[in-house]
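Example 3.2
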Amino acid sequence: MTVTGPEITVMVVDDHPLWRDGVARELGERGLRVVATAPDAPAAVRIATTVRPAVVLMDLNLGASSGVSAIEGILAAVPGTRILVLSASGEQRDVLAAVKAGANGYLVKSAGVTELVDAVRRTAAGAAVYTPGLAGLVLGEYRRLAGVSAGAGAAGPTPRLTERETEVLRFVAKGLTSRQIADRLVLSPRTVETHVQNTLRKLQLHNRVELARYAIERGLAADDPDR
């Protein structure tokens, strides 16, 4: 599903000039407004602080500087910015390091232009976007961390969610898209998104990855034999 809406501002961060400029050009030709580019972590943090893009599309390997440090620096300087990693690496350690630093999604560079543009739009809209296969890796790590947390003590009280919000939350924790959830529950994707946004607001969370972690920590992601 392609997300459309208001103009989306993007900053592209990559240490390879040809790749960086090529991606910026492709995004611009498809209706996204590239407001800046940067070659390394220090420049990315400095420029993001000035231009305040809606989405930062960035590599993890930035030569002598670290993409993880760039993520942390950008989010500290501009908390509302959403970060989508576009990397040649699909290694578990790299994906988890990026997500733990605050990245909202992770694509490998084999992604096509249409997939990339759609991912940027979805990231701006609040979705957690991953190359197929990587979402399961991230959720698996959250399940592991949830097990550690459960051993340390019980989670706090759960804010009051409606029955439908809880049902949608279970499917979000399983990694389903809004359209897939809508098909399961016989709802419209827009209605599902409304439930997701209401749940985010009630739980004071920011994105689907945080929702998934919340659900897993509270045992809401257990398999349901009726689904």
